[in-house]
Design brief:
Blueprint (H helix, E strand, L loop, with lengths): L2 H4 L4 H5 L1 H11 L10 H12 L4 E5 L5 H8 L3 E6 L2 H13 L5 E5 L13 E7 L8 H14 E12 L10 E2 L4 E4 L2 E4 L3 H6 L4 E11 L4 E10 L1
Parallel strand pairs: 1-2, 1-4, 2-3, 4-5
Antiparallel strand pairs: 5-10, 6-7, 7-8, 9-10
């Protein structure tokens, strides 16, 4: 029996999220707006300070942060498991003449299609808090570490356990809750520490986003 089943996680429910996101992206062309997120602006400043050139973005959605990174001068490799999202990012980058964007569909639960020590930085906005089990996240964190160069930053955001949606909706196991059709994995500070194996925790910042507002952590890790 899989560890996720032992933990009470309904794996089949997690797998339905791909179709739900795909439908949402088709219906809402700019679901999250067109302006870069606050975490992306902060990450870009940190990446620049450290001389990063090639970065990896996970869960690029419809590309608001991807395009921003490219316009800031970074070569951006972006992965998303939604074909519609990847198509949208590629189209927007082409329209803007941003040849430094490489967008491809991929499932972050699988090994990344990149060699070891390939990237100068990694960024993901709310990818860690998608429909991923804790064991999925351990593997993901390890894969990010593998493709990062030594001493480089992994910057990610997650909704946290002080968020108004935590423990509402349908419980999907662990700290996963389905709200409005979307499954969210809510993070405690302890979970951040548990997933930081092989990294130094540089900062954990609390911030808010959206109308609810959503309450999040902005986590900055350095590969050791």
């Amino acid at each position: 029996m899989r560890k996720e089943q032992l933990a009470g996680v309904a794996e089949q429910e997690l797998d339905t999220q791909k179709a739900h996101w795909e439908k949402t992206f088709v219906q809402k062309i700019d679901m999250f707006g067109t302006e870069p997120s606050y975490p992306a602006r902060k990450a870009a400043a940190l990446f620049k300070k450290e001389g990063a050139a090639r970065i990896l973005e996970l869960g690029g959605g419809q590309g608001r942060d991807t395009l921003f990174f490219a316009q800031e001068g970074f070569q951006v490799y972006v992965l998303d498991y939604s074909p519609e999202g990847v198509k949208t990012i590629a189209k927007k980058a082409s329209t803007l003449g941003l040849s430094s964007v490489v967008a491809r569909r991929d499932d972050v639960r699988q090994p990344f299609p990149f060699p070891d020590d390939f990237f100068d930085g990694c960024f993901s906005h709310m990818l860690y808090c998608m429909a991923l089990t804790t064991s999925d996240l351990v593997i993901l964190s390890g894969e990010i570490r593998r493709v990062l160069k030594l001493g480089r930053l992994n910057i990610y955001t997650v909704r946290n356990t002080t968020d108004a949606h935590y423990r509402t909706g349908v419980h999907r196991g662990e700290d996963l809750w389905e709200v409005g059709g979307f499954i969210v994995h809510f993070f405690s500070r302890q979970k951040i520490e548990d997933l930081a194996k092989g990294y130094e925790i540089v900062t954990v910042e609390e911030f808010e986003e959206g109308d609810l507002p959503r309450k999040l952590y902005l986590v900055t890790l350095r590969k050791r």
